């Protein structure tokens, strides 16, 4: 159980992706590569990695919630040919921040990383 005393960190999420890659978890990785633009609740989940990938292949697991007490928007996944890079951006915004503003902020973080991911900038 995750509590305030033991939060999940970006490094923890990176370890999960490395485990999946090392153990050839193709079923899971394929599902992440087929993430739809809208979640089952209708939330637009192509923020962060999908919006900033600019033609690079990606496989993602997104996360969002609001507003107890903050707006949470996460993007995590694999980017590049052969799932070369693991990218994890975990964010917390004041509840007053809209989904649109928060989503643009998350995408801006990944866009800033884009030159490091190969294939030019977004």
Automatic annotation (TrEMBL):
It comes from the Bacteria. InterPro entries: Beta-lactam/transpept-like (IPR012338). This is Uncharacterized protein.
């Amino acid at each position: 159980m995750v509590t305030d005393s033991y939060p999940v960190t970006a490094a923890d999420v990176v370890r999960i992706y490395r485990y999946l890659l090392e153990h050839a978890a193709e079923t899971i990785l394929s599902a992440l590569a087929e993430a739809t633009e809208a979640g089952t609740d209708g939330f637009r989940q192509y923020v962060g990695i999908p919006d900033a990938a600019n033609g690079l292949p990606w496989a993602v697991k997104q996360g969002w919630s609001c507003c107890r007490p903050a707006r949470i928007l996460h993007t995590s996944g694999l980017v590049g040919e052969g799932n070369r890079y693991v990218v994890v951006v975990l964010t917390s915004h004041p509840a007053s921040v809209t989904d649109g503003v928060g989503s643009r902020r998350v995408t801006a973080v990944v866009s800033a990383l884009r030159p490091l991911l190969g294939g030019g900038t977004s």
